[in-house]
Design goal:
single chain; 189 residues; mainly alpha; two-stranded antiparallel ribbon; 9 helices; 73% helix; 3% strand; globular
Length: 189
């Protein structure tokens, strides 16, 4: 049985009410979620009050409590990445309200900065730009979310979305350019 098959099988068992399935599933996903969270947190300011472990715990708890039918590994990590993004954005909004935008500027992840290199950005502005992109081009927003927030490879995204890896590559390049332009045009660094 391949890792992807056992993962999908455990998801199915968990959703069908088998209590030990979650216990067996947790170690399979926890390290990957922590790796993703550490990746996100690298762009955060040094004195950030959230730690990668806290982001993982919060996202995992939200995922466990969600009444969603998870189909496979790609779907699981897409949802988990969306939840981690929500945790970070919710935290930034909370801090912004407390300190009137203090501490929401971070370093734009290399995956999104592209050839421009690391650039300062506002996590709330990035979230707003992703929301705008999802209204105009849902597939582009989903590809970015799966790649950057979900940590999926081009091939994994292609398989999950039923498109070619070349299309994924083009979509990521287009979405990255659109997001950088949108963030720059809002006047929020």
């Amino acid at each position: 049985m391949s890792a992807a098959t056992s993962f999908t099988q455990l998801l199915t068992e968990w959703r069908s009410g088998q209590p030990d399935a979650l216990e067996r599933l947790t170690p399979l996903v926890y390290d990957e979620l922590r790796r993703l969270a550490r990746k996100y947190m690298r762009g955060e300011r040094g004195n950030h009050t959230l730690q990668a472990t806290a982001v993982v715990h919060e996202a995992f708890m939200r995922l466990i409590q969600a009444d969603v039918s998870l189909q496979d590994r790609a779907h699981f990590f897409a949802l988990a990445s969306r939840l981690m993004r929500r945790v970070l954005v919710d935290h930034a909004k909370s801090r912004s309200r407390e300190k009137r935008n203090a501490g929401v500027v971070q370093t734009l992840p290399d995956e999104l900065a592209g050839d421009a290199g690391a650039a300062d950005f506002n996590v709330i502005a990035l979230d707003d730009a992703l929301e705008s992109l999802s209204q105009l081009e849902p597939r582009l927003a989903q590809v970015i979310e799966l790649h950057y927030f979900g940590g999926l490879t081009y091939d994994e995204i292609a398989a999950a979305m039923g498109i070619s890896a070349a299309t994924v590559h083009r979509d990521i390049r287009l979405a990255r350019a659109w997001l950088l332009n949108d963030i720059a045009s809002t006047g929020k660094p």
